[in-house]
Amino acid sequence: MKKILIYAAPFSYGPTGKALSLASHLKDDYNIDFVAYDTSWELIALDGMSISKQSQLIPLENLDDQTLLQYSLIISCSDLSLALRAKSLGIKSVMFDSVFWWRSPNIEDMISIDAYIVQDFLGVDHEIKLLGKQPSNLYKVGAVFRKNIDQIENRSNSNKQILINYGGIESPYIKVPKNSKYPFMITDSLSQLFTDKSEFKFIVTGKNHIMQALANRYKNYGNVRFETLEHHIFLSCIASSDLVITTPGIETFYETVYFGKRSVLLLPHNSTQYLQLLALIDAGIESPVCTYNYYGKNYTYKRHINESEEVKAVLKNFNDIYSYPLHLNKYIDNLYQLIENRLIEPDIYEINKQQYLKNIGTNGGQSIVKIVEELIN
């Protein structure tokens, strides 16, 4: 069988979940290997063998040209540079982009690879129109999920379980606790739930070293478990939960909506989360009380050519709201009210979430399989 190498950029569950989902659709017809770095290495090392026991996991720093040339196709999730590098070596290359709506690439770079695949989201159509004539190698697909995700048991009755997910907490621009204490401060804000909802089991997931620190801090709570979950187990936890409380990354949002689970989106921790949440709020898909702007005009964000500067602006908003007791208390009150209400019944935002996913479709994985077949078969 032909060999495909899939790379996940180190931005927590988003690119990694997509890499694993794509592999699940392709593994029956191709030999799949992974390349990863930092956060994506940690998560794929946990879960890659659930895709194929023959898969290799290659550190990004060891990916030389000779290794690349062993593959018929390179798929890069959220990092165009590797797709461009592969193409320069004469290897078929695909870029999978979940944030095209936010930061579309240089058109010359886009058309220089074999396929540029965009996962649909609010604003994608507008960005495509701005290109003028759509490039022939540009494909828009629906939400991408794991193959056979419909076979995961989806418990519709109350299971007395709440999942708290800290996705996108670390990246090349953010290290915890060096320049952000977000997961510790948010968990502290949520910790009253552990007592108020003592009949519920809480599963808290995120990067391993953060989960270990939180587990030590909250070790006296018998109904709370802190654990870095493999992606397929993470999906099972979503499906068996009554509510998902999560950072506003689009992949977990899509997965939660797919299972018909209610969710509450936490304050954003990076620039993509910030803009994704604003887009969802503007479209009537999430409550405005979930983000900084609701609590005052001083919470600002400015687009910048340097993403690290955008991340700093988001972290400043987070630190500011936690430094201003009046705003913080108002946010926590609103957060708890949303959690309470959505544990009881779906509100208009939950209904709109379901309609939105229905509109964009859930067949992205199948669409990508067809694109790959056309490229290398």
Annotate the secondary structure layout.
Blueprint: E1 3-8, H1 13-26, E2 31-36, H2 39-47, E3 57-59, H3 65-68, E4 73-77, H4 80-88, E5 92-97, H5 107-112, E6 115-119, H6 124-130, E7 138-141, E8 161-165, H7 182-196, E9 201-205, H8 208-217, E10 224-226, H9 231-239, E11 243-246, H10 250-258, E12 262-265, H11 271-282, H12 307-323, H13 325-344, H14 348-360, H15 364-376
Parallel strand pairs: 1-2, 1-4, 2-3, 4-5, 5-6, 6-7, 8-9, 8-11, 9-10, 11-12
Helix pairs in contact: 1-2, 1-15
What does this structure look like?
α1 crosses α15 (364-376). The protein has 15 helices and twelve strands. β5 (92-97), α5 and β6 form a beta-alpha-beta unit. With 377 residues, it is α/β, with parallel strands linked by helices. Helices cover 44% and strands 15% of the residues.
**Total number of helical segments?**
15
In N-to-C order, the SSE pattern is EHEHEHEHEHEHEEHEHEHEHEHHHHH
Shape: globular
What proportion strand? 5-15%
Largest sheet: 7 strands, parallel
Q: How confident overall, as mean pLDDT? A: 92
Low-confidence stretches: none
Oligomer: single chain
Structural class by sheet pairing and helices: alpha/beta
Distance between the termini: 11 Å
Helix-residue proportion: 40-55%
Strand tally: 12
Strands of the widest sheet, in order across it, are 3-2-1-4-5-6-7
Radius of gyration (Å): 20 Å
